[in-house]
Design goal:
Elements lengths: L2 E12 L13 E11 L4 E5 L8 H14 L8 H11 L4 H22 L3 H4 L6 E3 L2 E3 L4 H13 L4 E5 L5 H15 L4 E5 L6 H11 L7 E2 L7 H10 L4 E3 L6 H9 L5 E4 L1 H4 L2 H13 L3 E4 L6 H11 L31 E3 L12 H7 E9 L1
Parallel strand pairs: 5-6, 6-7, 7-8, 8-9, 9-10, 10-11
Antiparallel strand pairs: 1-2, 1-13, 2-3, 4-12
Helix pairs in contact: 1-3, 2-3, 5-6, 7-8
């Protein structure tokens, strides 16, 4: 199987309501899709969208790098082309995103060629993954009501955003939600890097009676010493989120005894292979792991979903962000139904692009390299 053409398109997709990012507001999510065409008729698709909302300039930079590197891939097998272009791509954000898109498209091609879903190629045996319902900075009454609504809708895990308000309010939100949903539903929280280690310890000790599954990133990602101190000082398990981008980051977190759980995002890890390596490392070292998305299109969600299914029954994952987009670029959107998302069972990623939607939301950033 040899590459005959590469193509890419930028998209700008409005969010359904407000912005889910705590450090700024954005009405749109910018992304970049790429396709690898082969002489055997297979077409692999990848998502090279940046972490967070990004911008037109952000995806233009990725497209420009693709334009420079893509000619080197023509005539090569997809796996060799990925290795070559990965080595040529600079160690920058744009370079990581090129690796991400190429890696995802290559894995899609390998699954199609083998007539097997990507999850199957990775050793997965499950066909659905539970999701957490995310509640962002709501007042106590509304948070409790939304949590009850989520549980009634089939979710068995609820995640709360904390840290950007008075600690008394955060504690009250957790208390009200726990009382509303009972203790049979998993409840987790995200500190979004807001607290100091001392503040986190004070707040989390107050939250201990409410049986939180874990709290993500209570301090800034660089403060592994602070995370380790928090972990020693409170009964609530600690999860490393922003602190984990690469396998090396995961190794540093575990070496520092800074977390009980690793939050793995293929977009941050620059591809499925690195993300899978992080999951294997977590398993081999007795550390928990969950897979989250970063507002990708449905292509990126599909890749993360196959990854989450790869190592057996998954804990609830944060892959329901397609609900926040006006369109996820798929003909059959990958969004939670009754609190879970079914893993596509068609060969490769198992998704079908809605090309009319890509045309509708295009930014005008596009390119084709053919040989």
């Amino acid at each position: 199987m040899k590459i005959t053409k590469l193509e890419w398109r930028g998209v700008q997709v409005p969010l359904r309501s407000g912005s889910p990012w705590p450090h700024g507001r954005s009405k749109d999510r910018y992304g970049l899709l790429l396709w690898i065409f082969t002489d055997e008729g297979f077409v692999g698709v990848g998502d090279a969208s940046p972490v967070g909302p990004s911008s037109g300039d952000g995806i233009s930079e990725v497209a420009s790098l693709l334009h420079d590197l893509a000619p080197s891939a023509l005539g090569m097998s997809p796996t060799l082309a990925f290795d070559v272009l990965s080595s040529l791509a600079p160690h920058t954000t744009a370079g990581s995103l090129v690796r991400l898109g190429l890696d995802t498209a290559t894995v899609d091609l390998l699954g199609q060629q083998a007539i097997r879903p990507v999850a199957d190629l990775l050793g997965g045996v499950i066909d659905w993954v539970p999701m957490n319902a995310s509640l962002d900075f709501l007042e106590p009454d509304e948070a409790a009501a939304k949590a009850v609504e989520a549980v009634a809708g089939g979710y068995s895990c609820v995640k709360l955003s904390l840290g950007s308000r008075d600690p008394d309010v955060d504690v009250e939100v957790v208390r009200r939600v726990r009382e509303a949903i009972g203790y049979d539903v998993d409840l987790r929280a995200d500190g979004d890097e807001i607290w100091t280690a001392e503040q986190a310890i004070e707040v989390l000790r107050r939250l201990e009676p409410y049986d939180l599954e874990f709290v993500e990133q209570p301090v800034i990602a660089e403060d592994l010493t602070g995370m380790a101190k928090i972990r020693r000082s409170v009964a609530i398990p600690i999860a490393a989120d922003e602190a984990v981008w690469t396998l090396a980051d995961a190794e540093n977190v575990v070496a520092a005894a800074a977390a009980d759980v690793l939050v793995v995002k293929p977009t941050r890890a620059a591809g499925l292979r690195e993300a899978y390596a992080i999951l294997e490392f977590a398993r081999d070292n007795g550390v928990g792991a969950v897979v989250d998305s970063s507002m990708e299109t449905g292509v990126g969600i599909a890749a993360a979903l196959h990854l989450a299914a790869a190592l057996g029954p998954a804990r609830a994952c944060g892959l329901g962000t397609g609900l926040l987009l006006e369109h996820d670029m798929l003909k059959n959107p990958l969004v939670p139904v009754r609190g879970h998302i079914t893993v596509p069972q068609m060969p490769g990623l198992g998704v079908e692009i809605d090309h009319d939607a890509v045309d509708h939301y295009t930014t005008g950033v596009m390119g084709v390299i053919a040989g």
